[in-house]
């Protein structure tokens, strides 16, 4: 184990057609838009000199392609990094869902036919454990809601507290420690 405290670097994939227009996208495997590919290439310089001991990616093509273009073509696919399963709400926008379910949020209610906040938290706990056991920084390429929930779990909070952490496409965030306390070192940069 390294004498340095563990760090978990998070990269949300570049924009897709559905992320651009607010449609919930989990299992629908959309490609990056052309500007999303350029955003991923632009991440390369920001990540190149970190010395990651493990690089993980969601199996979805938007995350894998972001990893590849950012300079990590051999990122290990980790099923635990998939986006929150939206079930019956796949492809819908929040306003469309709220026409049927006023006041709905993924953070409080989950999705019928999809995952609850507790289920998302349980699988992301495995990612936290992997990163904390690593002998150096870990890099993870994934999705908006799952990465926000992952940050909450890193901090020891319920996955639903990811609601407090806005996360834009093609951004870098860093989780780590201050002394023995899990903290956010950088967010949505």
UniProtKB/TrEMBL annotation:
Pfam families: His_Phos_1 (PF00300). InterPro entries: His_Pase_superF_clade-1, His_PPase_superfam, PGM_Phosphatase. CDD domains: HP_PGM_like (cd07067). PANTHER family: BROAD-SPECIFICITY PHOSPHATASE YOR283W-RELATED, SEDOHEPTULOSE 1,7-BISPHOSPHATASE. This is Acid phosphatase. It comes from Nocardioides panacisoli.
């Amino acid at each position: 184990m390294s004498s340095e405290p563990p760090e978990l670097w998070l990269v949300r994939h570049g924009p897709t057609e559905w992320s651009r227009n607010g449609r919930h996208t989990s299992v629908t495997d959309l490609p990056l838009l052309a500007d999303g590919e350029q955003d991923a290439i632009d991440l390369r310089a920001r990540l190149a000199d970190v010395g990651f001991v493990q690089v993980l990616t969601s199996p979805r093509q938007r995350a894998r392609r972001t990893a590849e273009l950012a300079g990590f073509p051999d990122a290990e696919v980790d099923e635990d990094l998939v986006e929150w399963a939206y079930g019956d709400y796949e492809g819908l926008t929040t306003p469309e869902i709220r026409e049927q379910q006023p006041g709905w949020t993924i953070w409080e209610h989950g999705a019928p036919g999809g995952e609850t906040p507790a289920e998302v938290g349980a699988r992301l706990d495995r990612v936290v454990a992997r990163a904390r056991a690593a002998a150096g920084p870990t890099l993870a390429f994934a999705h908006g809601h799952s990465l926000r929930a992952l940050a909450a779990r890193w901090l020891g909070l319920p996955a639903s507290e990811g609601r407090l952490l806005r996360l834009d496409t093609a951004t870098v965030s860093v989780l780590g420690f201050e002394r023995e306390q899990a903290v956010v070192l950088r967010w949505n940069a």
